Amino acid sequence: MGKAGKEVPLSQCRKGDIILFRGTNARNPRIGHAGLIISEQGQPVQFIHSSSNKKKWGVIISSFDESEYYAKRFVKVVRVLYKKAPGGAFFRNKSILYILLIFPAVT
């Protein structure tokens, strides 16, 4: 998943981009967690993801700035939605579409 899409700076991310993190071991360079950005460009970054935290588990909405946890594990943001079309978005990589379908719609 880390090779799909086009990398964009965190400051330019927008709704529909994928935010990628290392897993629970911040020293392991492999991508182990992903979220779907739900905030608009220029707003504080919020994303929906599946959490295994004992206090908050299941599919949740988190803010990137809410703790150092995400900053320590942040890898990059990738854009997989390239243009809006009358019937929806265009996906360069169809496997990303299947991944996005596991997230419920949040607006």
Q: Give the number of helices.
A: 2
Shape: globular
Helix content: 10-25%
Intertermini distance = 24 Å
Mean pLDDT: 78
Helices and strands, in N-to-C order? EEEEEHEEEH
Characterise the protein shown here.
The protein is mainly β. 12% of the residues lie in helices and 41% in strands. It has helices at residues 68-73, 94-100; strands at 6-8, 18-22, 31-37, 46-52, 57-63, 74-79, 81-85, 88-91. It has a 6-stranded antiparallel sheet with strand order 1-6-2-3-4-5. A two-stranded antiparallel sheet has the order 7-8. A hairpin with a 4-residue loop joins strand 4 (46-52) and strand 5. The chain starts with 5 loop residues before the first strand and ends in a 7-residue tail after the last helix.
Task: Offer a concise description of the structure.
This protein is mainly β. The protein is built from 2 helices and 8 strands; from the N terminus they run βββββαβββα. It is globular.
Name the features.
disordered C terminus, 107 residues, mainly beta, 12% helix, six-stranded antiparallel sheet, 8 strands
Task: Tell me the layout of helices and strands.
Layout: E1 6-8, E2 18-22, E3 31-37, E4 46-52, E5 57-63, H1 68-73, E6 74-79, E7 81-85, E8 88-91, H2 94-100
Antiparallel strand pairs: 1-6, 2-3, 2-6, 3-4, 4-5, 7-8
